[in-house]
Structure of 3'(2'),5'-bisphosphate nucleotidase:
Amino acid sequence: MATFTVSSGTINSLTRTLPLTKNTKPHSLFSLSISLTLKASKFTLRASSMSYDKQLAAAKKAASLAARLCQKVQKALLQADVQSKSDKSPVTVADYGSQAVVSVVLQKELDSASFSLVAEEDSGDLRKEEGKETLQRIMKLVNETLTSDETYGNAPLSEEDVLAAIDSGRSVGGPSGQHWVLDPIDGTKGFVRGDQYAIALALLDEGKAVLGVLACPNLPLSSVASHNPQDPQEKVGCLFYAQVGSGTYMQSLDGSTPIKVHVTDLDNPEEAAFFESFEAAHSLHDLSSSIAKKLGVRAPPVRIDSQAKYGALSRGDGAIYLRFPHKGYREKIWDHAAGYLVVAEAGGVVSDAAGNPLDFSRGRYLDLHEGIIVTNQKLMPALLKAVKESLNEKASSL
Ligand SMILES: Nc1ncnc2c1ncn2[C@@H]1O[C@H](COP(=O)(O)O)[C@@H](OP(=O)(O)O)[C@H]1O
Ligand SMILES: [Mg+2]
Ligand SMILES: [Mg+2]
Ligand SMILES: [Mg+2]
């Protein structure tokens, strides 16, 4: 016989919402409690037995193929002369191409009838007369990438197919059903400089992140701090992935055996290294420096682009990630959903500056208090205190 356990808190909170009167008989309360117990148990069983293995395999394949496309474009971009480097079109080609590849792969691998994708790019500019040449280049690149995987055979996509694949990313997401969330190139500025960038893909189910995949083509497999750029194994890039309740894993982008990763267990903030955006326009470096000073952090900040920061933190390269955008900026869900789950499943904590969890259920934007802070459970109380003090000082100096 199966035995069910349900916390008394669940029953208490359920009974609180029921209309109990003076006339409610003890035996009816008893049967009510039994029926609630069974209902709650059914829910628990369903939630814990939910597996996203099939979606995870599809997401890893999609992100790895998109990474292959981006690597090719970045290589050509870095070899180009100065004049064509200032031309923004290679970046555009890679952004759109990556989005098209991920969309096509997910729809080929999974049930396309219920497919919903919330993604950064749309095809508006490509449908204009001046976008025609760029669209041709994207189509060629997407077809080359897809046929490099033998399972997709030789059925090239038309321009219309590519446009439709990009536009499937127009979903508005929300609190019900399943939605994929994609940033086809996160860290565009890093991509252009030849630095870090990521293909970030997450799955939301009923508003919660349940899968997170980060392909980081320029992130070394060993720690950011200790890696040896001469070692060819260091050049293959990393793939992080997490499924809710199953931990976070990392493998090389060329498919090495995955290893389970965990955030640092450091409890002394003085020894912590902290990450922030490379771009000062994306995060207030002065504010993070004031927070780090309060915590006694000795090392200088590690500034890298994209959600590669979440990946690096999930394996303990650093202990803290601070992100404080300038006033008025609204964060988008594709800039954080995948990174959030990669860190959370590796034992870390991600919250806004007031300690609230991130809420991915409200559509394309995240509504936040001030900024995003990430660290392990031991350091979070001290970090929250330092953040609060620094924000108060900043407010009183205005
Ligand atoms: N003024 C701003 N403040 C904060 N974030 C910004 C910003 N302008 C752009 N961004 C976001 O910062 C992301 C890059 O983050 P990071 O600084 O960690 O590399 C960008 O993602 P894209 O490169 O996908 O557009 C973009 O969404
Ligand atoms: Mg982004
Ligand atoms: Mg992007
Ligand atoms: Mg962008």
Notes: The chain is about 40% helix and 15% strand. Residues 30 and 80 are 76 Å apart (CA to CA). Residues 269-397 form a domain with the D-Maltodextrin-Binding Protein; domain 2 fold (CATH 3.40.190.80).
